[in-house]
Amino acid sequence: MLSIRGLTKRYGERTALDALSLEIGAGSFCVLLGPNGAGKSTLFQLVTGLFAADAGEIIVGGHSLKREPSAALRSLGVVFQQASLDLDLSIRRNLLFQADLQGLPRALAEQRIRDDCARLSIDADLGRKVRELSGGNRRKIELVRASLHRPPLLLMDEATVGLDPKSRRDLLGTLQADVRELGVSVLWATHWVEEAEQADRVLVLHKGKLLADGTREEVTSALGEPTLEAGFISKTSH
């Protein structure tokens, strides 16, 4: 679903991503684990076309972001670290606005909004303004919004920042269910090691380079410590 080849991005003298290459297959839950400043958000900004890379290639769903940007971006849904909902609009109006941007017929959009919000237990609040909702429910709305056009790849950038433990667990559980039941691929960026515990694959990013890539057990072994947390701290603390 996602192929990144030799991706490089610099900000003046600082290299945020250094010839990064990785592949994300279909129907997998992948955690991109890295400390603050590792390059996770920069990677997402490049994949979503917000920034241009200095070098390298990005292919999403078989489409080159450089040569076929519209087709590539249609394969993506994204939840950024910073909330981007209109707080003074209701849940329904926020979601219908996104559906209109995606060109969804109104009847289909209404059906998906009802179904997806019911699945996340927020359907009773469709008429409420977003500012009246908890942080956990706001994140649920952003997930529904990102999925309205049924993209095969979801990017989640530090999506649990500010959430309580239950909301964090519920959001992770929802995405893992989507991977199992719908075949969606998820790339979840985080600096929380515990969020990598149930991942199909863990990619450790530090200073713009991959330090390790594989299952949780393989990455723990590659980092050379008895636990993933110990290895992550040891290899990314300098």
UniProtKB/TrEMBL annotation:
Residue span, ABC transporter domain = 2-232
Which keywords does UniProt give here? ATP-binding, Cell membrane, Membrane, Nodulation, Nucleotide-binding, Transport
Stored PROSITE patterns: ABC_TRANSPORTER_1, ABC_TRANSPORTER_2
**Pfam families cross-referenced by the UniProt entry:** ABC_tran
Q: List the Gene3D superfamilies hit by this protein, alphabetically.
A: P-loop containing nucleotide triphosphate hydrolases (3.40.50.300)
The keyword ATP-binding appears for this protein = yes
Q: What molecular functions are annotated in GO for this chain?
A: ATP binding; ATP hydrolysis activity
Check the record and name the SMART domains matching this protein.
Answer: AAA
Q: Write down the NCBIfam families for this protein, in alphabetical order.
A: PQQ_ABC_ATP
Q: Which family does it belong to?
A: Belongs to the ABC transporter superfamily.
Protein name according to UniProt: ABC-2 type transport system ATP-binding protein
Report the source organism: Rivibacter subsaxonicus
